[in-house]
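tool_log.txt
---
The assistant was asked to compare two proteins side by side. It first ran the structure predictor on the initial sequence, then on the second. Raw inputs and outputs are pasted verbatim so the downstream comparison step can read them without reformatting.
(1)
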Amino acid sequence: MMEHDMREKAKNAMRLILEAARYEVEEVDDPLDLSAVRDGTCLLVLCSNDSDLIGQFDKTNYSLMIDDHEMNCKKLLFSMDKAITTENCIQWGVDEFVRYTGEAVLADILDRELALDLTPAKVKKAAVTAAAAAKEEEPSGITIPHLPIKITEQAAIRTAGVQGVAKLRFIPHFLFHYTSSGEQVYKDRRIPFDADGWGAINAINGIKIDLDGKMVEETEIPGGAEVCDSHIRKDEASERIITELIERLTQKVRIKQEKGDAIFYEEKILKPDRKNITIDSKQIYIPVWQIRGKKIVEVNAFTGELLSEPMDEGCEVF
């Protein structure tokens, strides 16, 4: 049994999640906990670990009458008992509860609608099985250096906040490691130009990002994924990095001098020498989920970051 205090806390958290998804939420009589209505859809919520109560909830059909219109209700179960299985409920365990609670708080902060996966347990299981089988049947045969895919399709859709069709795309980037050395001495002032760092440039739109290349792996990508062509050459990207690094390391030095009763200030701009800058770069790919619904939204499949602008254009399908 789920203790009374624990069930109340779970119910309050479920209310937070559903309200973040723009449902109108109300408490209902025992043994159920909440009802939630939105756009002609009704959800009845039960938070419990009681197998008998859950069994009754699973086999019972519920309906709601609104303005003389009868509406069949979906059933949402939250249970911390991993052994519980249902046939006719949307079933959430601890993982879904923790994920959606956190995403609901974030959605509230960003004033964004939370997208929920309301697939019944048996349908979800069948879909996962079918997707796994399809993945096994359709290997891409393409091996490229890329960041690993850590965000699932459903997680990307939730982050995007829109319902639609998701496609996995691999966006080309030039990963670079730069080093700078040397110094200049002006009068009594010594200016060093030491620098060392990593980064990457999007090979399509030229946007620069911070990126550590240690996570890059060279493995086969999933079948059906899209690999985009570069629009920027490697030498162009390297030249841009050198130019920006020189600008960043350039310093203006002001020297004070006194001659009799007069004081003079002399300014000198000191730049690093290009021959002391080394750029090592290679092409890698960053996985991105693109969700096409009412609008197109992209989510970084490695970090889970919601992208503010599209990373790609014109992709090839493998």
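(2)
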Amino acid sequence: MIKKIVIFSFVFMMLLSSVAFCASDPKLVTTINNGLTKIKGWIVKISTPAAAVAIGTGVLMKKFSFGDEERIVTGKKLIKSTLFSYAFILSVDLILTAISTLAKG
């Protein structure tokens, strides 16, 4: 009885391992990767003009502050935060690559 269980479990594990190694990319991983790539494309398309407008607004706030320190500081903060946010959005491609590499294992 124990011998049959051991043989059955060995055969079962061999079947599962062959299925796991034969597949190049699981369907779920491919679907998730394609979906995240599409979302990344949309986010970049939307954020590029928004970042340009925010940086332009920050530059104009600094330019037309007429010596008001509060507006100068606000303009600098706007420019810095916009550049940081846009850099993070552009680094999403690196994050997606890391996730797909980990999923392929």
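---
observation on (2): Helices lie at 2-22, 27-63, 69-90, 92-104. The chain has four helices and no strands.
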